[in-house]
Amino acid sequence: EVQFVESGGGLVQAGGSLRLSCQPSGFTSDDYTIGWFRQAPGKEREGIACISSSDGSIYYARSVRGRSTISRDNAGNTVYLQMTTLKPEDTAVYYCAVSNEPTIPGRKPKCETQGITYWGQGTQVTVSS
C-alpha cells in the first residue's frame, strides 16, 4: 500500500514562506515523478512543482515559478517544497503525488493530474492578507 506523510501546511501571512514535506512509502518503481499539486476552492487541481527520479529534472508552474523550490533529500525519500513571498491566492489544499509514467532524462517531467498514480491526503495552506 502506498502511503504519504505530508507536513508543513498551516496559516501564513502574505509575504511569508513555508516548507512542505512529503515522505512517500510503499511503491517500488525506480522511474517516477513526484511533486506537489494544489486545489483552491472552486478551482481545478493543478500541478505546481514536480521532480523526476531519473535525473532530477524539475517543472514549475508559472504561478509559483521564481518563488518556489522543490528538492529531495540525499536518500531521495523525502521531497520538499519551499515557497516564499506567499500570496492569498496561494491558499489551497496542497497534495503530494507520484506518477509512474516513464520519465525522459533531460526533459522537464510531466506534472499533470491525469498522469498521477498515487495521491497524498493533502495539507491545507492558508495565506492571510
Structure write-up:
It is a single chain. With 129 residues, the chain is mostly beta strands. The protein has strands at 3-7, 10-13, 18-25, 33-39, 46-52, 58-60, 68-72, 79-83, 92-99, 118-119, 123-128. The model has no long low-confidence stretch (mean pLDDT 94).
| End-to-end separation | 40 Å
- Please give the largest β-sheet: 7 strands, mixed
Number of helices: 0
Task: Please compute the radius of gyration using only Cα atoms.
Answer: 14 Å
Elements, N to C (H/E)? EEEEEEEEEEE
Structural class: mainly beta
What is the average per-residue confidence, as pLDDT, rounded to a whole number?
Answer: 94
- Helix content range of the residues, please? under 10%
Strand fraction band? over 45%
Poorly predicted regions are none
**Number of distinct beta strands:** 11
Apparent shape: globular
Features:
four-stranded antiparallel beta sheet; 11 strands
